[in-house]
Amino acid sequence: MNATENIEKISEDVANFNIKNDAEAEDFRINFLSKKGTITQLFNLLKDAVPENRKLLGAQLNELRNLAEVKLIAAKENFAISNTYNIDYDISLPVRDIKQGSLHPITLTMNKMVNIFNHQGFNIAMGAEIVDDWHNFTALNMPANHPARDMQDTFFLSKDPDFLLRTHTSSVQIKMMQSQKPPIRIISPGRVFRRDNDATHSPVFHQVEGLYVGEGVSFADLKQCLYQFVYEMFDPDVKMKFRASFFPFTEPSAEMDIMLKDKDGNEKWLEIFGCGMLDPAVLENCGIDSTVYSGYAFGIGVERVAMLKYGLSDIRVLYENDIRFLKQFANQL
Question: What is the pTM of this model?
């Protein structure tokens, strides 16, 4: 019997082998595909074949081996499906409760805030959470004796050189002003760190800061930007006011308050924004000519907005991962 006849006979044997269970599948593998199996042994014929027939013979052997492997795999898959259907199910058992997941209220709030500023033409800029002293303090016109530089107020990682966990996302704004030419219109959302911990403050919290630098930018532009945000975030009828304040990096500086009602129906003013026109020294520190360009900046805490929007009195509930609290937000986007 020549090699071709051998291949044809074994092909018939493979096709006629009936595999009905795991034991027969193992017999099939041993007979045809193991090291001493008939198909494996046929490959030894290649070395004795004449060169002009070797290529054709090799192709026939590969086809035979593939046929056997496919049949074995298909049989095992049929066993798995069959075994699944043979499992006894207790149809009286109650259906498992599939709980719907949700975005965290901080994420929901930040997404809403970012979308509002996106619609006003602000681009998103992100940056590192570990920064040096110059980008976090010095470039923002904060003097060497500023209280924020104290160890009790800031998480310093090293001294000389000073590296720290950023206390605001203003460091992103500084880098953008260094790397881009005006006009610059960005918001910088992200996580920041300060040594505060009580019912209304957390050592880790989130901010959205905004920056607009260009020719002829005025305080009126800043007010209109923040008015529009409050209208969309809270209510078109909410009362607002600006109070004079002080920040080293803006002049003039202001805080923006909105009037909300507490659980007893009493109205009270609550500060939500710190803002102002960029101090010329900040522009000059970043290589921007303050005689040509002006700009404004603002900052708002995401947790503060979430607490106001959802009527929360303690910031710590946002970090406790209490399912009873978080499931309230399952249907909100």
Answer: 0.67
